[in-house]
């Protein structure tokens, strides 16, 4: 028959489970998080009140019901979401049949697995901190089951164990073969992230302007282009359906030939995942990553969706000329009807040279009484261009780019809308540019004979400071922006940049340490192949050196030391020595306390209490005896 588990360590185990499940609960569906929380509360209540654990039938039905709900919700019991949810449920239900030390070890092992599964959610510094704390909590409660210790003694032991593990963890980080299927598992929730989309409708970009999450970071190899020249090209919207703009198929290669008219800019981009095939590039890209191609709309298209952070080097032209293009007919497409006033206005320019039609369109926007706002009125329907140009006259960049492109097409000038980002914030701490979702921008591109496709930004006609000085300077009232994109205190802005530099370094040197970088390191060490006999021999040798070093340190420091109870007893004996009662060699605590009580009867109860607590702490199993002994000795005056 198993000895009943003690209540306090068991509740410590349940509290550890709460910590372990915390990041998972933030990812699970709300019903599952609430269900797991309720189960943990139920188990804690059973432990507190000493009730009987539920029967096997109840546990079986509970597990079956949870699995059925997980299947209905995630359509799977394996994989990143379904598998982790099933593991969390199994581990939690296992708490309801935990009756012995063996069960404690099994539940603790499941908790370790859940900590490892946390890195399938994210690989940030916060997840690492949580994992370390969780590992310490799990290990700490395991130690407490074996031998009760005061919190400070337990903390010291856990700290030593952590320090001993660090060299091995560093060694394995650099030399353990990278496992792409695990570390690169597609994020099933990435589609829910914000970012540019395949189409542009009124309101898309103004919503992005309220999102200050990072879209990508850029490190330049030479001079940094001025803010007004930082146009990061993304999706090209070529088809207008009367209400919004859509991009064509991305698999069409063979765009126009490109002639350089300015210096070449080289830079490295670190792009956050957005679950789309396109890559961002400054203006017109000249050289591309190996996995990318240039579409016939001069858009960089990757071979697969960007589901994890990508780092790539690219070169772009700051000034260019393009040759004839077979996409020109598509750049004149318009619906057969709709927006009659805009068509009438554009028709009045149709006899002018193309460059003059472009200038007339820009002048119309600059002098037409338009305003740039983050909260434009809702404009939709078959005459949305007319409503914007002649009625509301308030809009964000997508309104101006869409309306200008419509006018140019109606005037006979091939044109299209280009989506992407404009500007960026320089981080002096890391010497790189931060481009956030709030930098999302849309502009136009027109075809002019002799120059080919050239960028035209109608937003600059109504809000030039938006282009030159950033989004926060584009509005009359900066309060309309999120706090951190408005005008936060300088110290807070500096703190934000320092933190971003830390995050960037983490991404570059820890998360970014992939198979390619590992192979580069191996080659520097003279290893040409992972898992070769030479590699395994060196890895084993390095592991042996670390383990032997740790063993020697542990052996050297393993001198016999008094435990906490003995130290407190000696402290008590020293206080009695000052009164003239000296502990004799080979004199036991009971004999010594009896002799001291006879000398000072007025302290009889205090001396006996200290002696009993010392015996309980040294030889008994009362986890609170050591603390009681410590307090009693402290208050005993010699």
Essential attributes:
single chain; 638 residues; alpha+beta; six-stranded antiparallel beta sheet; 20 strands; 14% strand
Explained architecture:
Keywords: Membrane, Transmembrane, Transmembrane helix. Residues 389-460 form the Transglutaminase-like domain. This protein is of the alpha+beta class and 638 residues long. Among the domains are: 7-147, no CATH class; 199-336 and 415-473, no CATH class; 564-635, no CATH class. Strands 9-12-7-2-18-17 form a six-stranded antiparallel beta sheet, with helices on one face. Strands 8-3-16-19-20 form a five-stranded antiparallel beta sheet. β10 (292-294) and β11 form a beta hairpin. α19 (564-578) packs antiparallel against α21. It starts with 6 loop residues before the first helix and ends with a helix. The model is unreliable at 186-192 (pLDDT under 50).
Short description:
Pfam families: DUF4129, TgpA_N, Transglut_core. With 638 residues, this protein is an alpha+beta fold.
Unreliable segments of 5+ consecutive residues: 186-192
Strand order of the largest sheet: 9-12-7-2-18-17
What overall geometry do the principal axes of the alpha carbons give? elongated
**How would you state the average pLDDT, rounded?**
86
Helix content: 40-55%
Using the CA coordinates, give the radius of gyration.
Answer: 35 Å
Protein name: Transglutaminase-like domain-containing protein
Transmembrane segments: 12-41, 53-72, 103-121, 127-145, 157-176, 535-554
Domain Transglutaminase-like: 389-460
Organism: Iodobacter fluviatilis
């Amino acid at each position: 028959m198993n000895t009943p588990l003690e209540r306090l360590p068991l509740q410590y185990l349940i509290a550890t489970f709460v910590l372990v499940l915390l990041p998972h609960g933030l990812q699970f569906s709300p019903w599952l998080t609430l269900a797991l929380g309720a189960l943990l509360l139920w188990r804690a209540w059973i432990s507190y009140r000493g009730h009987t654990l539920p029967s096997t039938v109840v546990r079986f039905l509970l597990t079956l019901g949870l699995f059925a709900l997980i299947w209905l919700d995630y359509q799977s019991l394996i994989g990143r979401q379904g598998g982790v949810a099933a593991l969390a449920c199994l581990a939690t239900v296992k708490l309801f049949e935990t009756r012995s030390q063996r069960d404690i070890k099994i539940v603790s092992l499941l908790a370790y697995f859940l900590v490892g599964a946390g890195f399938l959610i994210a690989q940030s510094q916060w997840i690492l901190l949580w994992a370390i704390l969780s590992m310490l909590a799990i290990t700490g409660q395991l130690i407490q089951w074996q031998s009760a210790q005061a919190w400070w003694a337990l903390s010291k032991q856990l700290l030593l164990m952590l320090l001993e593990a660090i060299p091995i963890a560093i060694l394995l980080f650099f030399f353990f073969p990278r496992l792409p299927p695990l570390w690169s598992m597609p994020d099933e929730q990435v589609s829910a992230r914000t970012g540019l989309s395949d189409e542009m409708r009124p309101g898309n970009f103004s919503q992005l302007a309220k999102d200050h999450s990072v879209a990508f970071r850029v490190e330049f190899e030479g001079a940094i282009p001025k803010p007004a020249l930082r146009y990061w090209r993304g999706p090209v919207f070529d088809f207008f359906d009367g209400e919004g703009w859509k991009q064509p198929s991305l698999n069409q290669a063979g765009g126009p030939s490109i002639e350089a008219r300015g210096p070449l800019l080289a830079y490295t981009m670190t792009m956050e995942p957005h679950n789309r095939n396109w890559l961002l590039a400054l203006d017109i890209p000249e050289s591309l990553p190996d996995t990318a191609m240039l579409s016939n709309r001069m858009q960089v298209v990757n071979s697969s969706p960007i589901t994890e952070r990508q780092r790539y080097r690219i070169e772009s032209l700051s000034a260019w000329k393009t040759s004839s293009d077979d996409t020109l007919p598509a750049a004149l497409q318009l619906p057969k009807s709709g927006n009659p006033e805009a068509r009438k206005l554009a028709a009045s320019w149709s006899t002018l040279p193309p460059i003059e039609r472009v200038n007339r369109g820009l002048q119309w926007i600059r002098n037409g009484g338009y305003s740039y706002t983050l909260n434009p009125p809702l404009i939709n329907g078959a005459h949305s261009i007319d409503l914007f140009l002649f009625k509301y006259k308030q809009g964000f960049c997508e309104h101006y780019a869409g309306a200008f492109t419509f006018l140019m097409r109606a005037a006979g000038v091939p044109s299209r809308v280009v989506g992407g980002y404009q500007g960026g914030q320089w981080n002096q701490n890391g010497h790189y540019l931060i481009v956030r979702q709030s930098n999302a921008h849309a502009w136009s591109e027109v075809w002019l004979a002799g120059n080919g496709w050239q960028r035209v930004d109608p937003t600059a006609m109504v809000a030039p400071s938006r282009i030159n000085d950033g989004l926060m300077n584009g509005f009359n009232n900066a309060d309309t922006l999120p706090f951190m994109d408005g005008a936060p205190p300088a110290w807070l802005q500096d703190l934000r940049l320092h933190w971003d530099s830390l995050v960037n370094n983490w991404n570059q040197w820890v998360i970014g340490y992939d198979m390619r970088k590992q192979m580069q390191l191996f080659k520097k060490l003279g290893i040409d192949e992972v898992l070769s006999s030479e590699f395994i021999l060196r890895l084993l040798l390095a592991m042996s050196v670390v383990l032997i070093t740790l063993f020697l340190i542990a052996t050297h420091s393993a001198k016999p030391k008094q435990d906490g109870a003995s130290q407190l007893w000696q402290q008590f004996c020293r206080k009695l020595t000052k009164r003239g009662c000296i502990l004799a060699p080979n004199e036991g605590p009971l004999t010594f306390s009896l002799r001291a009580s006879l000398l000072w009867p007025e302290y009889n109860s205090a001396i006996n209490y200290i002696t009993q607590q010392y015996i309980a702490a040294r030889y008994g199993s009362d986890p609170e005896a050591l603390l009681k002994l410590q307090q009693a000795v402290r208050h005993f005056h010699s």
